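Thread: quick sanity check before group meeting

JM: Hey all, I'm pulling together slides for Thursday and realized we never actually wrote out the predicted structure for the chain we discussed last week. Dropping the sequence here so it's in one place. If anyone has concerns about the input, flag it before I start.
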Amino acid sequence: MALAWLWWRGRKDPGYRANLDQRLGKIEPAPASIHGLLIHAASVGEVQAAQPLIAALRTTWPDHAITVTTQTPTGARALRKHWGDALQHLFFPVDTTSATTRFLDRLQPRLVVVIEREVWPEWLLQCQARAIPVALVNARLTERSARSYLRARGLMTPAWRSLALVAAADADSAKRLIGLGVTSGRTVVTGNLKFDQPGHPSGANNPLPHTNRPMVVAGSTHEGEESALLDAWPTLLLQHPDALLVIVPRHPERFDEVAKQVEGRGFAFARRSRNETPDSDTSIWLGDTMGELGHWYARSSLCFIGGTLIPIGGHNPLEALAVGKPVLFGPHTQNAAEVYGALARTEAGRPVASADEAILRASEWLSQPDALHTRGQAALAFVAAQQGSSASTLDALTELWVPLDPHQLHAVIEHKDGGTTTWHNPLLLDDARASHAFDPPGRDAVSLATGSGRGQAQQLKLNGHEVVLRHYRRGGMVARFNPDRYAGSAPRDSRAMREFSLLRWMKARGLPVPAPVAARQQSVGKNYTADIIVGMLPNSRNLVQRLAEATLSDAHWLAVGTAIRTLHDAQVFHSDLNAHNLLLDSDGQAWIVDFDKCDVRSGGDWKAANLERLKRSLRKERDRLPRFHWSEADWNLLQAAYTGKSPLP
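JM (edit): ok, ran it. Output follows.
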């Protein structure tokens, strides 16, 4: 159904028919964006609202770790126009199990920020199952919308409860959202992000042609509004014959329709899309381009906000107010009732009952230039008094990613050569050496203990760094006839790349794991082999090696228990937590290695089983080795540290 709707919308905007694979979750994210930040801004309005927040987030998160999704092609174009190629853009998947699963499997975001009200049940529940916190910011909810959600409470209540944070634009919206099931302790009022949007320039940097004629801009208009304004416009021309009415329809597919309405009434008009400029006979200027509404507002004398004369609910008046332009608006303002209510109590805005009244008030304002200037100053003051939402929202969001240091999410360089794909960390390996990083090790390479034999690891020096090269090998009976080949997959889904990406995120979160250096997938027919290079942990040995020689101190066991707890607190499931994958260095620091087939998951039931696996490993080694200095009392120390009940001061 969703694809059929997109195809139908594509009749007027072909962008809806493009990138259907992405909408089915078949995305190809850049390697550096995996385990990063995802911001969802459905369409143009949400993209514009998100601009100050994205700017604030970019001071903390590197661009390569940020992905922005939209649902509409107009939203995608607005994003690209403002940010260019600085941020990765993808289309949001349709809310089905398969599309959502594919999308999240491939991008694996570690934080999702949703702008305003894009609440999709399947998406939210899958994020919850993967321990991905979802924040709803600049959240606005009208009474009418709240009632509609209540009719689907069985479907929506679990989704509302799954939200990790709701940063509401106003107190009324916060109250309604809590009434729907959002946890009150996760709800804060941070204000409307749109107040923080920078005003569009009115001077030399404005791309619109300059005119000294008085100009009334009707922005984001809908069907029924343009015809009413056009019918009333001759009244204003009687008092202000040199005035221009600029109409900027909300939806681009209506541009031609509105042009026919203007032409049918006999007005001389110009179309921005054709680079036409008004002459002395022109009374209507059609703003039939995308992304220039703010520039029209900046050029105007005063503005009318569309979607308010008919039951749409009103669009954003702040873009006009931010450039010092007073606004007129109709009675239908429920989409931003608090903003419009406050605006009506100032000189910056005036409600009107009809298009006739809007044109009458516009004529009065144009006749009083000093008062019009005062209204413009009131508009600027209104916006300035309510700014600061982006900073408040950023503060609230920060709590969802701490202790992660986003700056530590280093870039990832990808190289493809035939059937070989490599990823590498440019901070540890330069491009010139990356292509030879996986060459057969030289004589100075040192074979390392790999426990059960499933790994094949060697210590070597690469680009001045001590590293460990590990070749992925199978275990069990399968290894006898297929030691190291795996079923073909995209590089991002290979064993090596998935471990590389997970290590990169864990390292940025401060977990006791080695740094990822490089990863490789090599195609072999319909299968592949895989290798990974990680940083060497100096002067470290695994628990089996240490316990084969001597007992460990209480401090050592407490360090191991603490390391496992930090891993579990980050919701990281280690698929093979055993005594070979836990290391201690000469300073007593515990480390965890070998994250093949590991992931981030929600809940806590699996944590006890993870610990039990380690306990079985220790018992197995005790029974296998002639000397193994471990007892059940040591396990009690480890568990004490894990539960935060350390007996040491």
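AS: nice. The mean pLDDT is 93. The longest strand covers residues 516-524.
JM: adding both to the slides.
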